[in-house]
Amino acid sequence: MPLSASLARGVAPTTPGTLHARTVTGDLSAPPRPGLTVCFGRGEKPDVDLGVGVDDLRVSRRHGELTYRQGQWWLRNTGRQLVRLPRGTMMHLSTEPIPLDTGYTPLFVKGSGYREHLVELYVAGHDDQGPVSRRRAETLRPEIWALDDDERLLLVVLGQRYLLYEEDPRPLTYATAAKQLSYLRPGAGWNERKIEYRIEAVRRRLRNTGFRYPLMHDKSQGRPADNGLLHNLLKGLVESTTLVPPDLDLIEDDDLWPDPAPES
């Protein structure tokens, strides 16, 4: 059933399952009617219902579609370029459709160069008015994770490249961090073993607190390579603003070593 015909019948904005979608070029709402399909892409009506990336030739004229069935909206990529979802999920033309959860879901259509085109999706739940303007509401504070002074210093040393917002940063090795800490806190007994112990303690403490990235090993998958869990810890602490660039002042008074060399 085409979207235009379905909308002509009208739909209450509070109906559970109502789909709200918008891009920089338009928006729409669609009822949870079995068999209804909403299409988005670079093309024009009636081929697509919602335009996205209309000036980008890397975006397909009909790049994706959302179909209501089995009580959910199912997303399918029908374009040549990838579609990116939260938590790094990618969808290719060959990927099976994915059901949308109730609430907000952003998706990004890969375009030319570094361009990514945002499609905002919102599926209404029970007693839900859909997306509501909150322009006058107080801004929510970021989720800040508690660290003691030693943990903060250790994490700033290990994650200084993250705090410089370098592209694709990586942690310092424990050996390099131990050398820097021995200059900053002589007599504190910092060594690789102590660093490993303190980092694991932080990861264990934060793992069940809603931290954004995995912090513990999945035994079924084996141990991760490339220091992945430390990377997750530092990335999450910086993104949450638990660690911020002014924290680099903790190590700014040391002129005793050169900038750390790149590490593999």
UniProtKB/TrEMBL annotation:
PROSITE patterns referenced in this protein's UniProt entry, alphabetically: FHA_DOMAIN
Keyword Heme: no
InterPro entries: FHA_dom, SMAD_FHA_dom_sf
FHA domain mapped to chain residues: 38-90
Region (Disordered), start-end ranges: 1-28
Superkingdom of the source species: Bacteria
Phosphoprotein listed as a keyword: yes
Alphabetical keyword list: Phosphoprotein
Listed Gene3D superfamilies: 2.60.200.20
Identification of the protein by name: FHA domain-containing protein
Organism: Streptomyces melanosporofaciens
